[in-house]
């Protein structure tokens, strides 16, 4: 076990470096860097991409003559901008300095906000934790009982109509369902039952404990429901198929022959084996929902989370935010992969990844 974990941890290093190298290299060829953004704003262009579409040339940070709109600005001013953003150094030196800082978990400061990347992420984290945690928990709470029920009653009318409902829910995009909920229940055209902004009300601090809990769930009801609608479909079918596979095995027939009840067989013998695939995937599912964010859902419900942060940082070319969050989230994703394997081994001791080596 120890040797396997050590090997996996050592593999995290080259994988993480590879991710950062690829993304850092790509940004060197993408037009419209942070300096171009500032020049476009100072020249009144509004958006650097307007100049790119009409300029006909590539923009690479570090070459003064390539900056569209820089003709009216003093070269010394542009040189100061390059020095401030670190573009006066060669790309390799900038990458090595960045990785050395990231190893020490120093993610620097945002180019366009007077705040560190760490503090900025922590500021947006409550929204992402809320959406990711509750979406994952609700998906499991619905999928596991429903999947078990469908497996036990395979081929029945219940199985048929629930499968149809699952397919319909899976086919509806989350953002479209969110718009429908807004129209119906958030003052769009019918009832104004739920709010549309933030995680809490403005008078949240003045509420009692029960009032705060109720206010919190009142605000997150619609966005969480919007993100959950399609997420439980795959999990439900996975649970059903896993239970069906176990129910047909010989040890279940032997248990029935011994006179054990259906509930005893199902929950004492089948459950642990059938839930191996479902439960072991919990860390990965939570991380995918948590860090993936949902830009459209956050925008529709005026929630300022990691989804909007990532989009705004990419558009503004706020590289410290882009690369800082990429490094942190990639590292956590790789660690979660190891935790997923350990979950397999914990649920089913027969699995031994170390023996494969």
TrEMBL record:
Superkingdom of the organism of origin: Bacteria
Main location: membrane
InterPro entries hit by this protein: MetI-like, MetI-like_sf
Recorded topology in the membrane: Multi-pass membrane protein
GO term, biological process aspect, one: transmembrane transport
GO CC, alphabetical: plasma membrane
CDD domains assigned to the protein according to its UniProt record, in alphabetical order: TM_PBP2
Record bears the keyword Membrane: yes
Keywords: Cell inner membrane, Cell membrane, Membrane, Transmembrane, Transmembrane helix, Transport
Subcellular location: Cell inner membrane; Cell membrane
Family affiliation: Belongs to the binding-protein-dependent transport system permease family.
This protein's name: Microcin C transport system permease protein
Species of origin: Loktanella atrilutea
